[in-house]
Amino acid sequence: MGEAILSINYITMFIFIAAMKRCLIILISLCGLFNKVCAQSPSAAIDSLIKYQIITVEDRPVLEKELKEKKHASYRIAILGGVESIMLQKKFHIDLHKSSFAISYGKGHPDKKSQDSINVSLHILLENIKKAGLLTDRVYTYTLKGIDTGRYVIDLQMIGTITEMSSRLEQLASNKLLPVAEDLHKNGVVDDSSFVRLENNIRNGKIESAFQLNDYCKFDKVVDLTKYPDDPDVWLEQIHRDIASILPGLNFTNFSYTTIPDTSFSIPGVRFKVSLVCNGHIYKYTSLAFTNYKNRQGKIGPGDLFVEDFYRIFNKVLTDQQSPLRLHSVMFSPGTTAEDHFRYFSLIALSAEQAEGFMKKLNFSYMSVSMESYDTTLTSKNISNAIAEWRKMGLFAHLSDATIAKATDKTEADNLFAMNGLLSNFPQVVYSIDSAIMSPDYPYVTILSRLAGITRGAFNPTGITQSKVKEDVELKYLSKGISHSYTFNTANGWVDTKFVTFVKRLSQENNLPGNFYQLAYEDSFIYLTNEQYIYAQKNKLLNLEGATTKR
Predict the structure, then answer these.
(1) Is 547 in contact with 476 (CB distance < 8 Å)?
(2) Whole-number Å distance between alpha carbons of 463 and 468
(3) Is residue 284 within 8 Å of residue 273, measured between CB atoms?
(4) Is 101 helix (H, G, I), strand (E, B) or coil?
(5) Are 209 and 335 within 8 A, CB to CB?
(6) What is the pLDDT of residues 306-353, one digit of tens each?
(7) Helical pair 137-148 and 112-131, crossing angle rounded to 10 deg
(8) pTM metric for this prediction
(9) Could you give the CA distance from residue 515 to residue 218 in angstroms, rounded to a whole number?
(10) What share of the chain is helix, strand, coil (3-state, %, to 5)?
């Protein structure tokens, strides 16, 4: 009996110990998780920062405000961002919420003695931030290594790195990034085998930057600008050849370029105009890339300007080939460091449906692609025919042959989005009211004068004035001896919502032989006689917004 009782006691004790062990394991696991993710409450974390004199009691409202405003992020990210903001304010009197700026810590380093002293302070700061429960092991280890290798020269620099890395890794967590990978796979941007690799790497925490998604996408290329020489005679053609390698059928010959002076900014600069032959046809493109910088040898390097838009010359080739694909530049967020953004750019070939998929909020927050035209009618042949027809119908009657030839060349090198937009290359044919922003004091005077300029002498208003009447603007002018006035309601902006109606009524009020028409999908207007309108509609030469023939 005693042995039986003893056995029962042993069994009971074993069960008790096993249960305690299980509870201990659970407790240890929970403590480990708690330490990695949420070691303290937000209030306790702030208390710790005050305790370790990272911030003062007076700074507490700043962090509490960050917590309220950054509800989309974890409290760790909000507090770290608040600490960075406080340091910026105290050291440089910069308010993150009111200023846009970039801090460069330069390439120089303190001497060893100074760096050692800096590192001691940074070690203490890092340990105290860790005690506040604001760091994951991964961020802590990376930052600690950075201190030991002399990466940081000031506490603010280290805090900025911690904040950026913590935010980036939080956004790249598997629960957030896996749905993006699945959607890219579903849309055919990532193939089956690449998706398996991507999925595994996301789950194993190997994706540290959205920029790494390049490694898994089809028809994708990363261009490293540091691999090209500074001489545009070399790097311009080489970059184009590297871009052409993304898809078959883009090989070219007879590459050449010219520099075009650009005075659209206060500091004069240059743009590049490129020409090449592909499939027996000459293609041209004038880049949006602008620079006024040259190195000591007087050369412009690829890192001295925004070069991503050079790929658009190949979209002209793809349009002529009636390919379903277009090249896009890709921006990533959360991306890599600021230095990497200037060093690399990424391109990808997509179908219209795939490009539309990147407009989803799910994908857009990680990868955004440039807007490109999938209009299959914008072929080189159709553009040449359209220019010939526009000339035939008299749209260029006020222009000399030399001006028409120059405008045609400019059109051929333009970025193609819509046929209507090409008309802007021909002087005084269309007028965009957006340009009136350049005359903020008297926009309506400018608009009326410019509208008159595209009528080829049919409309000649004089004595144009604009005056303020309470919250409205009154426009007055003389035409054919008759005084005209119109009042615009500008309480909600400088352009009245009824402005389009005003423009269309100009023809009737001034007994003009034609009408003003708004080009579809644009804020531009064109003036056409009835004969020109009928011809354009019959031959589908212009896409007009709600056009009707004047009677």
Answers:
(1) no
(2) 17
(3) yes
(4) coil
(5) yes
(6) 667 899 999 999 999 999 999 999 988 876 554 566 688 899 999 999
(7) 170
(8) 0.82
(9) 50
(10) 50, 15, 35
